Amino acid sequence: MTTTSPDRAAGRTLRIIGIGPGDPRQVTIEAIDAMRGVDTFFVLDKGATKESLVAVREQICDRHLGAGNYRFVEIEDPPRDRNPSDYDAEVRRWHDARATRIETALTAELSDDGVGGILVWGDPGLYDSTLRIADAIVDRGRLPLAVEVVAGVTSASALTAAHRILMNRIGEPILITTGRRLGETPSGVDSNQIVMLDADCTFRHTADAGDHIWWGAYLGTPDEILLSGTVGEVGEQIASTRAQARARHGWIMDIYLVRKP
Q1: Range of 220's domain?
Q2: CA 92 to CA 76: how far, in whole Å?
Q3: Running DSSP on this structure, what letter comes out for residue 122?
Q4: Using one digit for the tens of pLDDT, what is the confidence trace for 223-244?
Q5: What positions does the domain Tetrapyrrole methylase occupy (predicted)?
Q6: Is the pTM of this model over 0.85?
C-alpha cells in the first residue's frame, strides 16, 4: 500500500482503492485487506451511472466484507460542462468542486481519526482523477489527511486478457491515450494504441481500414461485450453496439486496442 502522506497521526485517513473493472474476483488481496479497515466508503458518481455503479460496488463489498458490514455515503457529483471552450480549465474547475464536496463529506462523516475509502474502477493511477483530488484536499491544508493508495487491475489488462492477446508485438511501444487525443498521436508511436474515454469511436476517423481493433465494454461483468477485427470490418459495428449498450444500461465503460498491421 502506497502512502502519499505518511503522517498517520495527522488525523483522518483516505484510502483510494483500485477494485478492477467490475469482476469481484479481480479485487486483489491487498485491496480486500484495505477495505476491511475502512469505516465509511464515499461514492461520487454522476447521473445515470450512479445507481448501477453503486450496486456493483455493493456487490463487491458484500462478497469480500459481508452484507451489512460496511457503510456507504453518496456524494452528489458537481455539474460539468461537456463542451467547454477551454477543456482543461473546465476539468480543473470540476475537480476543484469535487474536492470541496469530498472534503466536506470527510469532515462530516468521519471521526478525527477515522478511515474513509473510495473504491476506484480499474487502477487509481490510470485515467482517474481521485488521487489528484485527494492531493488537492491535502494541499489546501484545512483537513489533516493521510492518503493511501492501493493498485488495481486495469481495464487495459482485462481487455487483453479477455481477447487473449498481448498489448504489443516484440519490442514495440504502447501508447495509452483518450479518444479526444487519439488524432494527435505522432507517427512512430502509433503501432499499439490503447484508447479510453472515447464516446465518439474516434478510431473510425483516425485509423486505417486495415488496422486491427480489439474492443471491450463492461469488462469482467455479466454484461461484458467483446468485438474484434479490422476497423473496416467491425468499426461501425462497434459504434452501433456501443450506442445500443449505453442506451440499454444508461452508462458504459469501454476500452479498445488499435494496432497497425
Answers
A1: 156-259
A2: 18
A3: B
A4: 999 999 999 999 999 999 999 9
A5: 14-234
A6: yes
